[in-house]
Design brief:
The protein is of the alpha/beta class. It has 11 helices and 16 strands. 27% of the residues lie in helices and 20% in strands. Helix 10 packs parallel to helix 11.
Length: 406
């Protein structure tokens, strides 16, 4: 496979779309034959750096390349200055140069000037102004336009596993797919997960030592970040293949969680079912102790960019309502969502139907009066620092739902 093939039902996350020239490492094929890639994302603990996302490359290359570019800039030859000490320029404001790219000069070595002493612009045989072009930079092979995945050999995979323990503390390694059908979009990385991760990293005291439940965790990126401050994170979703990928990502990033003592438990939670899977034979089933811990100690629920289908959105809020009613302690839920603009034939206009339905469900939850739980909804302004490099567009929103037992 040398490039991604798009079909009518293919969806590609902007996180991957905006990095088309990066080097992708295809680690394996999953159980349904989809290529699985490895991406690395760097956490900006100090909030000052700007290098965070590096798909499949050695992270220290960024520093080396920046240093090389700086040396090249420092060694550039300064153009000859004119009589006033400034560089002589043509009518277009650029330095007048000859065919060899140098400043045009006469036989005596002086720049060609007209009768009035001004530098004459270079003209072609038709009298048109010749504008010198900067030589096209030859890009390295890895920066070509097409995305060419590199299949890791068994030896490379063993080397990758050996390097897991040496992975820097500020690097998150995520296995994911690209360009999937709509039902498999949870296997990609989305901007909503980065927004929630920014909130967690910038306000660690809010989540420190907490028991957290993530709904629709996907690749598990947000749960992994949460485990750097929280005590226990129940990372939930559906689909054996997706949960296996999520478990793999948790293992890849244990170097982030172990110093803080956090733990991520990948579990099955189907929004269309009214109970948790407690089957002892199920790989991602719940134990009785975990169910009790969830109901007795959970104070935070998170969900990142999971509202893209109206039926699933309804199921999400039913699940959220059911879980909050079973919790012993007050609970705060953080929901990130991206307003996706689409032109619809029904409205003959641009609309955000999935977002509008999400807002409708939020309003219904706040107005709900059942005598058991009181819900308060408010939007959170994303004024906190950006700790991961991504495009924080204005369509990204963060909502906070507070549930207090009556």
């Amino acid at each position: 496979m040398d490039q991604i093939t798009f079909h009518y039902d293919t969806v590609l996350s902007d996180v991957h779309l905006l990095l088309p020239n990066s080097r992708h490492l295809m680690a394996r094929l999953n159980s349904v034959g989809q290529p699985v890639f490895i991406s690395r994302f760097r956490i900006l603990w100090d909030g000052a750096k700007q290098h965070t996302c590096d798909l499949g490359e050695e992270l220290d290359r960024d520093t080396q390349e920046e240093s090389g570019r700086g040396d090249a800039r420092g060694s550039e030859t300064v153009a000859d200055a004119g009589a006033d000490g400034g560089v002589d320029r043509g009518e277009d404001g650029g330095v007048d140069r000859g065919e060899d790219g140098g400043v045009d000069r006469g036989e005596d070595g002086e720049e060609d000037r007209g009768e009035d002493g001004e530098v004459e612009p270079p003209l072609d045989e038709d009298g048109d102004l010749e504008v010198p072009r900067r030589p096209r930079q030859t890009l390295p092979e890895r920066d070509r336009d097409m995305v060419y995945p590199i299949i890791l050999s068994q030896a490379r995979r063993e080397e990758e596993e050996e390097e897991e323990d040496k992975c820097p503390r500020d690097v998150i390694r995520i296995e994911h797919t690209m360009a999937t059908p709509l039902e498999d979009v949870g296997k990609q990385v989305w901007r909503g997960a980065f927004l929630l991760a920014d909130l967690i990293l910038s306000q660690p005291t809010t989540f420190r030592g907490a028991t957290v439940l993530e709904l629709g965790a996907g690749t598990g990126l947000t749960s992994i970040v949460m485990a750097t401050v929280a005590k226990t994170v129940y990372c939930t979703d559906v689909g054996e293949d997706l949960l296996s990928m999520c478990q793999k990502n948790v293992t890849l990033n244990r170097h982030l969680m172990e110093p803080a003592g956090g733990e991520v438990r990948v579990r099955l939670l189907d929004w269309l079912r009214h109970d948790l899977c407690t089957d002892a034979d199920a790989e991602f089933g719940w134990s009785e102790d975990e169910v009790a811990d969830l109901h007795d100690n959970t104070t935070i629920i998170i969900a990142a960019d999971v509202c893209y289908d109206d039926d699933l959105t309804d199921a999400l809020f039913r699940t959220l309502y059911r879980i909050c009613n079973n919790l012993r302690l007050p609970c705060t839920t953080y929901l990130s969502i991206e307003k996706r603009l689409n032109f619809t034939l029904r409205h003959m206009d641009i609309s955000c139907e999935a977002y509008n339905h999400f807002r409708h469900c939020m309003c219904e939850m706040q107005e709900l009066r059942d005598g058991r739980t009181c819900f308060t909804v408010e939007q959170v302004t994303p004024s906190f620092p950006q700790c991961l490099l991504y495009e924080r567009i204005e369509q990204l929103e963060l909502w906070k739902v507070t549930a207090v037992p009556v």
